[in-house]
Write a structure and sequence with these properties.
It holds the Pfam family Aldolase. Keywords: Carbohydrate metabolism, Lyase. This is KDPG and KHG aldolase. By secondary structure, the chain is α/β, with parallel strands linked by helices. It folds into two domains: about 80 residues, no CATH class; about 210 residues, Alpha-Beta Barrel (TIM Barrel), CATH 3.20.20. Helix content is about 50%, strand content about 10%. It has a nine-stranded parallel β-sheet, sandwiched between helices. Helix 5 runs parallel beside helix 6. The longest helix is centred in the N-terminal third of the chain and has 27 residues.
């Protein structure tokens, strides 16, 4: 039964008076040792402590009612807050097309050329040899025109730009149609600009600290560079122990024969440059060799998947 306001004040006064009387009795007991032998019961014993304490609390606090949310169910404040956040949170952006393509192919071919024509023909030779994900290095003369041409001629392939060092070049590449960008390090401006877009950014990292920083900043997949200098497959294997949930791309100095080892050690994909676009073949514009090396690389990836 709810107490009236007057009743509350009366009960408070009663409890205060009882407490004062008890305090006085205790003082008398201390001043008169003989009083300690008395078995007179304290006035506080005459009250039901639990009952009166609840009555006193009811004078100051409204009755507790668990918050209702998520369809009228009674939830804890934390659960209610989580339910409300989930209900109002925006839908997660769709994954860029390049990410599943990279994870599926596990191979990115990287073209470096002294001129746009050589880059275009070398890229075409690699794509016709079975490569499905390819990047042109940003420093290649006419790189934006090469990107546009490849997207037109190979619409089912994923074409990107590599060695992107600043946000201005990134915007130019995206405007030309690049589906992913890759850097040797992490350029935060690029990472932030491309979040929640359909263009994938693959920042580079070397140490565990750099990997964790890039991932926590929003990177979906991270390039480990220069991997051969850091220890090759063993370094990837060690790096994946604390970060099994972070996809990584091994890059630099990887040969066709070592593709399977990198994948078995935990790399989600590898970058091949000279292993496909052999320097002498590029210099002589021997695109048949590039076609053959591209075909060999894709076969090696397929065999690694069966291990």
């Amino acid at each position: 039964m709810k107490l009236k306001r007057v009743g509350c004040h009366s009960r408070i006064s009663q409890l205060i008076d009882v407490a004062a009387l008890s305090h006085t009795s205790q003082r008398r007991s201390l001043g008169n040792p003989s009083a300690g032998t008395s078995r007179a019961r304290s006035p506080l014993r005459r009250l039901s402590v639990g009952k009166d304490a609840m009555a006193l609390a009811s004078c100051f606090s409204p009755p507790f009612r668990p918050p209702l949310c998520a369809g009228g169910r009674s939830l804890s404040p934390v659960a209610c807050a989580c339910a409300q956040t989930a209900a109002t949170a925006p839908a997660a952006p769709s994954l860029p097309k390049a990410l599943p393509a990279i994870l599926d192919s596990r191979l990115i071919a990287c073209v470096r050329a002294q001129d746009g024509n050589t880059a275009m023909e070398a890229a075409c030779a690699a794509l016709s040899g079975g490569i499905s994900v390819l990047e042109i290095v940003m420093s290649t003369p006419g790189v934006l025109e090469v990107i546009r041409g490849l997207l037109k001629d190979y619409p089912s392939s994923v074409i990107g730009v590599g060695t992107v060092l600043n946000a201005e070049d990134a915007r130019k590449a995206v405007k030309a149609g690049a589906q992913f960008l890759m850097s040797p390090g992490t350029v935060m401006e690029i990472l932030l600009d491309l979040q929640n877009t359909d263009v994938l950014y693959i920042p580079g990292a070397m140490t565990p600290t750099e990997v964790l920083f890039a991932y926590n900043a929003g990177a979906r997949i991270i390039k480990i560079y220069p991997v051969s200098v850091l220890g090759g497959c063993d370094y990837i294997k060690a790096l994946k122990k604390p970060f099994p949930h972070i996809p990584v791309v091994a890059s630099q100095g990887i040969t066709t024969d070592s593709i399977g080892n990198y994948i078995e050690c935990g790399a989600s994909a590898v970058v091949l440059s000279d292993a496909i676009f052999e320097k002498e073949a590029m210099r002589q514009r021997n695109f048949d060799v590039i076609h053959r090396l591209a075909h060999l690389a894709t076969r090696q990836v397929g065999q690694a998947g069966k291990c």
